[in-house]
Amino acid sequence: MRLLPLAPGRLRRGSPRHLPSCSPALLLLVLGGCLGVFGVAAGTRRPNVVLLLTDDQDEVLGGMTPLKKTKALIGEMGMTFSSAMLVANIDLGPTILDIAGYDLNKTQMDGMSLLPILRGASNLTWRSDVLVEYQGEGRNVTDPTCPSLSPGVSQCFPDCVCEDAYNNTYACVRTMSALWNLQYCEFDDQEVFVEVYNLTADPDQITNIAKTIDPELLGKMNYRLMMLQSCSGPTCRTPGVFDPGYRFDPRLMFSNRGSVRTRRFSKHLL
Question: What is the 3-state secondary structure (H, E, C) of 164-177?
């Protein structure tokens, strides 16, 4: 992701505060404890227990390729990795309710239940994209330890190399389909800077292809982002840009949450 400071200076990612040395050991401890307590490693009958482990260890461990590090740790504990699908924290609520036997049709939750995946359902229709959002952090006043930096940056200690800024606020559509593996992002700054990465050819997100990709596709991704930011309930589970059932419906971009601001590609009616 692009990190653009509001003042002279540099932004960095991966500070020691975000890279605790105990994280790999902690993950191994959690996995090992679950295997030992539930008797999975010993081959005994598994109890009626579901463990939902969510983590950002791949970021913490420096793994740019999704799940590369986590899959390695899971393998070391004698477990197998069965599938990689786009899931989000909004899926936890529906999953827990589904496990408890609650009728999800009675809810208006944005997410999807993971229970069919856990049960190994075949011919499962799943999402091909997911919304990613981040709110950049900054200080309204100049950091006294870095007087050369203007307000708007944060976490600049000890060498005035900042980790974050207000204009590091962005929203993305992460897409995974049979033919496409993309990440489309828009920054909430004065120029609405856009980043697009082909994660099949460029898993480390080095080359921004926003200026070379098909403008029609760029417009569709822009509208998809606006829709996912404003949707509610079932409208959040409509087909993605690369799904056979995709269609552009401007009504999906507005819900009881209110409207979203017009973005740089809003002139395209796709």
Answer: EEHHHCEEEEEEEC
